[in-house]
Specification:
alpha+beta; 3 helices; Ubiquitin-like (UB roll); single chain; globular; 3-stranded antiparallel β-sheet; 5-stranded mixed β-sheet
Length: about 160
């Protein structure tokens, strides 16, 4: 039987010091202190993905841009989330809480559905952004789009 080696206090302190010297926190990401989204996307096949953090506001000092619907579409296309069962990329429409995410230029912070905005900081796996292939729903023109928060000071009037 192998005897486990007991660590001394000194070796435990050294291990703790090494961790403290590190520059990144475990589980964190760059610009963690800025308001940001952790969004989930459900593919047409039913798989749910967490997309990398997207930011609510532009911060020129840190080279961070406010996220738009176009950023989500770019992720969907680059990761192949809009592929059918045969692996072919197809035209798609994004939905959140049953409302179509339509205009690619709209900032995520302005999207309102049923009086609720996309939640900051915490992702919601129960209400992800859903990718639906257009061949499954027909013409997406017939679906109602999200509302826009006009109180946002950066929204053009």
């Amino acid at each position: 039987m192998k005897k486990s080696k007991k660590r001394s206090r000194r070796s435990l302190k050294n291990k703790t010091k090494k961790y403290k010297r590190g520059k990144t926190k475990m589980g964190g990401h760059e610009h963690e202190d800025l308001p940001h989204y952790h969004l989930y996307i459900r593919s047409p096949r039913g798989t749910t993905y967490e997309i990398p953090a997207r930011f609510a506001n532009t911060n020129l000092e840190r080279n961070v841009d406010a996220a738009t619907i176009a950023d989500i579409k770019e992720y969907v296309e680059s990761e192949g989330v809009n592929r059918d069962k045969a692996g072919i990329q197809k035209p798609y429409t994004l939905f959140w809480k049953g409302k179509k995410l339509e205009d690619s230029n709209v900032k995520l912070r302005k999207i309102v559905v049923e009086g609720e905005k996309l939640p900051l900081y915490r992702g919601n796996t129960k209400e992800p952004i859903v990718v639906i292939l257009n061949e499954d729903i027909g013409d997406p023109v017939w679906f109602e789009a999200h509302d826009i928060d006009w109180r946002d000071p950066n929204t053009p009037r």
